[in-house]
Amino acid sequence: MRNDKIQISEWGLEEHPSTELLRQYEEGSLPPATNYELEKHLLDCEMCEDILTGMSLADRKRTSQARYRIWQRIRTRLRRKHRPSTILSLADWRVAVGVLMMFSSLGLILFYAYTRTATQEQAAMHAAEILPPSPEELLARTIDAALVLDIPAPPVAASHPDSSGPKASSGFSLEGQLVDENGQGIAQATIQVQGGPWETTSDERGHFRLSLVAGSHTLLVSKTGYAPQTFHVESPGKTLRLRMGNRRQ
C-alpha cells in the first residue's frame, strides 16, 4: 500500500501517468489501488485513453519509438514558438527606407555643392589666366619698348658715281642726352626730326639715339610738363647735350 501511494504521488505531480504505468495497466501488473486511480483518470482523459489504445495495438518497442518521435515534434514546435522573429515588420521597413533615402539625398546635396564649388574655382583660375594686362603693365611694356626703339634711316637709292657731280650723302648715328636746367636727365621725352620719319624716346637718364642721313636737321623735343623746343644739329661726331627750358607751372 505504501508503494501505491508513492506512485500516485509521483503521477499527481506529472498530471498524467507515464507510459510505463500505462503499460503495466495494460499488462494487469498494477496494484489494485493504483489500478483504480488510473481507471478513474482514463474516464476523464481522452489523450491517455488514446495512448492506451495505441499501446494495445502495437508492441512495446514500437510504442516507445512513437512516443519519442511525438515528444521530439512537441519540443521542436515549442522551440519554434518561442524563437524570436528576425523578419522586420512593415513599419520597420518603412523607417529603414526613409532613413536610407534621407542619407542618399544628403549625399547628393553635398556632392552637388562640392562639384559646383570646384567648377567655379576652375573658371576663376581660367579667367585669371586669360585676363588682359592691366594699364600699369601696358604702360611699363610701352616704356620698355620705347627705350630700345631705334628707327633706322630709310635706304638711300644707289647711284652711279659721277666725277663731275657731288658725292652721294652717307648716313650717321646721332647720339645725345636730354637734360633739364639742373643737368638731370629727362626720361620719356619724344625726339622727332622735323620733315622726316625719324623719331625716338629718351631713356631713364635722358639718352637717345637716331639714325639720320648726313646734313643739317631740326629736332623737335616734347615732354609732358615742358614746352616743346627745337634744336638745330649738323652731322656731329660727338654726343650732343640738349638742355630743356623751365617746366610749365
Keywords:
7 helices, 249 residues, disordered N terminus, Immunoglobulin-like, alpha+beta, 50% helix
Sum this structure up briefly.
It contains seven helices and seven strands. The chain is of the alpha+beta class.
Word description of this protein:
The chain is α+β, with helices and mostly antiparallel strands and 249 residues long. Among the domains are: 2-82, no CATH class; 170-243, Immunoglobulin-like, CATH 2.60.40. It has 7 helices and 7 strands; from the N terminus they run αααααααβββββββ. It has helices at residues 2-14, 19-27, 32-44, 46-57, 60-82, 90-130, 135-147, and strands at 171-179, 190-193, 199-201, 207-213, 216-222, 229-234, 240-243. Strands 3-2-5-6 form a 4-stranded antiparallel beta sheet, with no helix packed on it. The protein has a 3-stranded mixed beta sheet with strand order 4-1-7, with no helix packed on it. Strand 5 and strand 6 form a beta hairpin. The longest helix has 41 residues, at 90-130. The radius of gyration is 63 Å and the shape is rod-shaped. Keywords: Carboxypeptidase, Hydrolase, Membrane, Protease, Transmembrane, Transmembrane helix. It comes from Pontibacter indicus. GO terms for molecular function: carboxypeptidase activity. It holds the Pfam family CarboxypepD_reg. This is Carboxypeptidase regulatory-like domain-containing protein.
